[in-house]
Amino acid sequence: MSAPVAPLPSPASLEAAPEAAATRRTAPPPDWPSDRLEGPEAKRLLLDALAGLVERLERHDGYSAVIRRQERVGGRLLAEQTLRMKVRHRPASIYVRNIGVQDGFEVIFVEGLRDGKLIHHSGGLAGRLLPVLELSPRSPLAMSQSRFPITEAGLLSAARMLRDDCRRDLGEPGASIVLDRLVDPEGHTRYRSRLRYDAPAPGRPFSRVEVLYDPGTFLLREMTFSDWPEAPGPGEPLLGGRFVVVEFDPSAVPSDRDFDATNPAYDFR
């Protein structure tokens, strides 16, 4: 039986991060519309904003974060997971632990080590019985909990993906963008972008993508994507997945020890 999980800190930690002011100084937040904006102007504004976000994130060496994740994998919507992440950008390194359950799984990937493989140990009883595994990041077992390989995890990878998709869609009439603002359930104002495609095409795994951004830093706070309907027609698409940034600390830059399986704080054996 899983142990109860302590309440997570408020998402306000993102606004209060020590490097938030420095992040703002490197480039100002985008001049987001106060009212609904769509069409070519919205596409260009979003592309400029995402390009600036990628540039700012690339200046950081890394960060720690807590992410809530729920995805549809193999046609089945999995239970939501709460993940502790430590991310280093150079060399690309990531540590992930499921902290939403007792004895959750752990994964480590470091670019250039283990012939490009990650190491993984299962959670719970399986983690006590099964050995630590080395897996290709795109192997079926490694991707049994997510549609994105660990090599594409993290805020920088997500920002690059959104930027590249936006650049590709600039001249695409079948790709529509709407920019606006909303107030989330906690009372915070968020910038919002909503992408919608008219029809499936190569490079369009999702029919809709909605992203919420922090107004002060333009950091991603939540991303929701929808799959294509199983049959043509006006039916609503299925939820493909959702990621929510609960904590983000750019001052907590991981070291080599954070990606070492012998770290006594970890449960690799």
TrEMBL record:
<dbReference type="InterPro" id="IPR011465">
    <property type="entry name" value="DUF1571"/>
</dbReference>
<dbReference type="Pfam" id="PF07608">
    <property type="entry name" value="DUF1571"/>
</dbReference>
<protein>
    <recommendedName>
        <fullName>DUF1571 domain-containing protein</fullName>
    </recommendedName>
</protein>
<feature type="region of interest" description="Disordered">
    <location>
        <begin position="1"/>
        <end position="38"/>
    </location>
</feature>
<feature type="compositionally biased region" description="Low complexity">
    <location>
        <begin position="11"/>
        <end position="26"/>
    </location>
</feature>
<feature type="compositionally biased region" description="Pro residues">
    <location>
        <begin position="1"/>
        <end position="10"/>
    </location>
</feature>
